[in-house]
Amino acid sequence: GAGYGVGSGGQGLGPLVYAGIQPLVRLCWFTLRLGSYVGWKWPVALALYFFGSLGITRMLWRDLQWLSQEASRLDSMFKRIHARVRMHAESIAFYGGGGAERQFAERQFEQVLAHERRVQWMKFKLGWAQQIFDARIPEILKNSVRFYFGLYFGGTDAEILMDQGQSLNAAQQFLVRMFS
């Protein structure tokens, strides 16, 4: 029969648990290595950056979802008005209600346009926030970590010139391997 035994459920659970735990283990290992090499203020800064960007993006995204639902509602109302006018066009023309129907449709269209402006403004703010959190801040953090890593391992300018930058090169190569 089609029974659900213990053996059949365990086959899909292993890869799922591994896929869920593996990124967490990699993150912890990276944080431990980074903290041991450049100090713990950088992993703390990365964690603050991650949770801060996640919170801000979620806050903006929630508003965007509501705005898109409202846009769908307003658009459907506007289409319903047009369908009603199209269906009852002869009656509207016969009784002289064209002006009233036009005002009603234009009011609804203005609501749609005003809401679309709000949606576009919110999309602009979300795109701006994503650009900052996805491109600008990670680049700044990566360059800052590289600078302090080189300063910590390479030493002063005089020390780097004495060993012709070999300690700095080795440290930078290690850092590149750690980020990739």
What does this structure look like?
With 180 residues, this protein is mostly helical. Helices cover 91% and strands 0% of the residues. It contains six helices and no strands. The protein has helices at 6-38, 41-87, 89-94, 98-154, 157-162, 166-179.
SSE order and pairing:
Elements: H1 6-38, H2 41-87, H3 89-94, H4 98-154, H5 157-162, H6 166-179
Helix pairs in contact: 2-4, 4-6
List keywords for this structure.
6 helices, 180 residues, single chain, elongated
Q: TL;DR?
A:
With 180 residues, the protein is mostly helical. The chain is built from six helices and no strands.
Average residue-wise pLDDT: 77
Please report the number of helical segments.
6
The biggest beta sheet, please?
A: none
Q: Into which percent range does the helicity of residues fall?
A: over 70%
Order of helices and strands: HHHHHH
For the termini, the CA-CA separation is: 50 Å
Structural class, from secondary structure content?
Answer: mainly alpha
* Total strand segments: 0
Overall 3D form: elongated
How much is the radius of gyration in Å? 30 Å
Low-confidence stretches: 1-5
Task: Provide the β-strand percentage band.
Answer: under 5%
